[in-house]
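Record pair follows.
FIRST:
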Amino acid sequence: MDDVQDSCLCEGVKFFVTGAPDTAFKCYCSHCSKTRFAKFKREAVQVVEGTELMSTYILTDDLSGSPKHKVFCSRCGCTLWTIPMKHHGTHWILRTAIIKDGLEKLPYKSEFFASRMKAVAAPDGVRRFDTMPGQ
């Protein structure tokens, strides 16, 4: 993936993403509800404008047993990324839909579907896990 600059819905928070993600995935847990994500190393993401608009909601009821920090724009409510504290903040999980052409450029390669409807089949070539590996 090329380096990209993008933003939340209201363009109040702008960020720059460098390089390719470690992986791209889809999650069906109650927090994510079928949203696609890409996992980047922390240093690959740089907020260039709007840090004063960023707020964090901490989720503690996830499968890993460690909190997840959901970072969002306080003006438009757009979720920007999730920081899984199980990994001590070393990776940020960005929503691929807010990265320019992210849904096309970052096809998901795995999915976590413990809460997914079992009758719905995953696409061929997509690895399936009940939870995120390492949890």
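SECOND:
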Amino acid sequence: MYIYWLMFFLASAESLNITESLDLTESLNMTESLNMTESLNMTESGNTTQSPRAVYESRYTDCRQGDYSLIYEDLFKYVNMDKKANYMRPGYTYKPTTVNLDLLVTSIIEVNEKAQSLSTQVKIMMLWRNDIFLWNLFGSCGFTKFQGKKEWFWYPDILIKESIKTDFGTKESPYVQWFLFGMLLSVDIMALTTACKMDLYKFPFDTQICNISFHSAVYSSKEMMILPFSEAINLTHDSKDLFQAQGEWELVLINYFKTDAPILDEVQDLLVYEITIKRRPLLYVINIMLPVFSFLVLDVTSYFMDADGADKLSFKVTLLLAISVLLLILNDILPSTAEKLPLIGIYCSVIFSLIGISILETIFVNYLKAKGAEIRSAAFVQRTVAVIDQDDGVREVQIPPDQNEIKISLCWMRVAEMTDTIFFILYIVTIIVFLSVLASIWVN
């Protein structure tokens, strides 16, 4: 990463055209002439005080005797940091100020699906040029950079459009790097909570794209341009190298694009970083999807249970209650304002409905079987009648079972068995088709 920044510094130095060099040389010559004149005048008047430039350029002819603190102090006076003009935007009168920016994601702290927010720790680097702060490389004993307080310089008023809450990761750095060619570099580590519109349709196999947009608070695009510095592939690679947590979410890609936003009758530069993150679904597969599927398999196998209708019915109701508990857990995760019902919600709801229909079918089959058993038992009830024989005696005669009632009871039992078999076949076919279609949508 820092190799790219160094190349940028060198390119910026080479981009100084001849006209600027001549103007700078002329201004330095004029300043030196003025300083010489002032020095002569002060000598003639008996005052031996030297100008800051004269002190700066004469003190360190022998760098081995130089002191960093003295160089720093004289350089401070040399570039006139104590002047109010230093707080003005660079290029205030003739050109927009270019601010180069990099965003590195070092950690994904939290993704709140209900609140539709993303909490990250990021490293933000801003680089801009101020032609006021130039110094002589040889007059400063070879020092190419110094550190200065932020309040000494003009500082870009960059805001984050989607910001809900912004904190500094550790402590706000009070300093900026100040380079030889007038380049200023600011580095901050921040904890951001930003709004992110999420599409949870494929939860938990979802990929989210969250935007972090940088823009100026007051400057238009004619006054400040915000440009990316590094390539997107380098941002992604460096972010993954700095990534500090291996949680539920995986950083996939950092991309960016430029756009503009209206401000009154003008427009502002808007640099938008797209952060693509992918969920690791294993936790939800183990805790929600597999248990629900297991309940469905248990419901299917209940058709082979050698038990009476009451036991089978209570078993199925228990499965239904277990799925309802998982639906309550799922309700705490997913937002209630989703435009489309997530596939996992469809998955659980359909399986819940299938088991509910299976319970109704079990109740109906049990009714048919109970009806047939009732008629059959009534047919085989021992019935006797009193018969008077030829000797005027009375005797009891047992009446045989009614064959019509037996046939009716067998018909009821046969209907119950056919209903159970047909429903079981349709049930299996419905489950296979449903899971196949859902899996194809989830994967694609």
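COMMENT: The first strand starts at residue 97 and ends at 112.
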